[in-house]
Structures are given as structure tokens and as C-alpha cells.
Design goal:
The protein is α+β, with helices and mostly antiparallel strands. It has three helices and ten strands. The chain is globular.
């Protein structure tokens, strides 16, 4: 069982209101890599993002989580060998910022339009210059309807959303949502 899957399933089974997303796209980890992912977000501020990609031809699987008030990331080659693991105060603060943006897109009340852009300060260290609030945001390129709710189905997100640096260095995530389920 991939790491994080049990947390994702537990969160989906117990949390309400919540949304479960299926998606694919590209993530930039020095280079753009295709990914497939599933995510559960809750109105109570918990999330599990479970994804897989390939790095240098090797399968990498892992999870980004915000559970019980603590953020963590755990990524493994072949799902076994550690590739990246992080937790602690900075990871938790950044995960809370991520959650803020995702809730604004995916857990809106029925009938409310989703924003076409979002911009806010998010705790991070995208350039290795130290942890701090960095301008963060995203652009919705296409919306769809699921269970009477408007949600982004194609979007781009990243750091330095305040200008040209977003397009040059900040954008790191392009996704297409293929499934949305609410509870």
C-alpha cells in the first residue's frame, strides 16, 4: 500500500464536509514531470495529496499531508526508498497556506462561482533564501461542474505570483481535475 493511502481513505471515510479529487498534470521538480494524483480536502483543514510521477525514469510515489494540525511530506522511489521527507513548523505553516488556497477553489458552497485567480502570501522557501511569506497564487484556465458546484478543472499555480517571476521560476504545478466527489 502506498504511503499516505490509509490516511487518504480514513480522511474520506470520516470527514464531512469534504471533497475528493482525481487529477493529472505536470509538476516542476527542476524539470516538468507528468503526475497522477488523488486528494482529499476537508472543511476542518485536513488534507492528503497522494501522487506518483517518474524521476529519471524511476517511479516516485508519495504524499503531502496536513493531518491533526501537522504538515508532512514523504516521497519514495519505487514507493520504498526515501527520496524526500519533511515535517516541522515550516512545513506545517506552508501546508496550512496551501490548504487556504485549495479550499477557496474546491469547497465553495453550491451555486457560488469559483475564483478565476487567487493570490495570497504563503509561507515557503521556493528559492532557498529562507522561509518567509512569499506571494503565491494560481490561474484557473477552465471550470467545470460537479455535484452542482463550479470548480477549476484546469489550472496553474506557483510562487512569485506578483509578476514575471511566476512565469519564469515560480509556476510549478499544472493540473487537470478529472473527478470530483463531495460528502
Amino acid at each position: 500500500m502506498p504511503r499516505g493511502l490509509a490516511d487518504l481513505e480514513r480522511l474520506w471515510a470520516t470527514a464531512s464536509p469534504a471533497v475528493r479529487l482525481q487529477m493529472h498534470g505536470e509538476i516542476r521538480l527542476r524539470q516538468w514531470l507528468p503526475f497522477r494524483a488523488e486528494e482529499v480536502l476537508t472543511a476542518a483543514g485536513e488534507m492528503v495529496w497522494l501522487a506518483q510521477t517518474k524521476l529519471y525514469g524511476l517511479p516516485v510515489r508519495g504524499a503531502d499531508c496536513l493531518l491533526k494540525g501537522k504538515g508532512s511530506m514523504d516521497w519514495r522511489i519505487f514507493g520504498i526508498f526515501p527520496a524526500m521527507r519533511a515535517e516541522g513548523e515550516d512545513i506545517t505553516k506552508s501546508a496550512r497556506g496551501r490548504m487556504e488556497g485549495e479550499l477557496a477553489f474546491f469547497l465553495l458552497p453550491p451555486g457560488q462561482s469559483c475564483p478565476r485567480t487567487i493570490r495570497y502570501p504563503r509561507w515557503g522557501n521556493p528559492d532557498g533564501k529562507g522561509w518567509r511569506d512569499v506571494d503565491f497564487g494560481g490561474v484557473v484556465e477552465e471550470v467545470g461542474r460537479f455535484a452542482g458546484r463550479e470548480v477549476p478543472v484546469r489550472f496553474r499555480i506557483g510562487w512569485h505570483f506578483d509578476g514575471k517571476d511566476f512565469h519564469n521560476d515560480g509556476e510549478f504545478f499544472r493540473a487537470e481535475v478529472t473527478g470530483v466527489e463531495y460528502r
